[in-house]
Write a structure and sequence with these properties.
132 residues; 4% helix
Length: 132
């Protein structure tokens, strides 16, 4: 298990940017795919995007593609979610999660290894609110 703590949420206006961070514990952090999810009030938690163990492969939900960027720094045990051109519909609690090991950059770019059931450790979430 990996323990994860998100930070960086806040209240911003539409069109603004935010960068979320997710700090992980343990040296095995670098073994896992890392994912970001979000949950808006009254809705189910949805996948936002993921990054491969090396950082060389990423995959995004269509709703955020071209606006959000995921990266990671394994030396710092941290994964980031850069959110640009934010929209009111991006308002949600954002969660990071540790996923499966053993998938290549190519696998992640193709969307393999990203089934919800593969994510086994979750942070507590950070609120992002985008006003119109």
């Amino acid at each position: 298990q990996v323990q994860l703590v998100e930070s960086g949420g806040g209240l911003v206006q539409a069109g603004a940017s935010l960068r979320l961070s997710c700090a992980g514990s343990g040296r095995i952090f670098s073994m896992y795919i890392m994912g970001w999810f979000r949950q808006a009030p009254g809705k189910e938690r949805e996948f936002v995007g993921a990054v491969s163990w090396s950082g060389g492969g990423t995959y995004y939900a269509d709703s955020v593609k071209g606006r959000f960027t995921i990266s990671r720094d394994n030396d710092r045990n941290t994964v980031y979610l850069q959110m640009d051109s934010l929209k009111p519909e991006d308002t949600a609690v954002y969660y990071c999660a540790a996923g499966a090991g053993g998938y290549s950059d190519h696998d992640v770019r193709a969307g393999r290894g990203l089934a919800r059931g593969n994510f086994h450790s979750w942070g507590q979430g950070t609120q992002v609110t985008v006003s119109s």
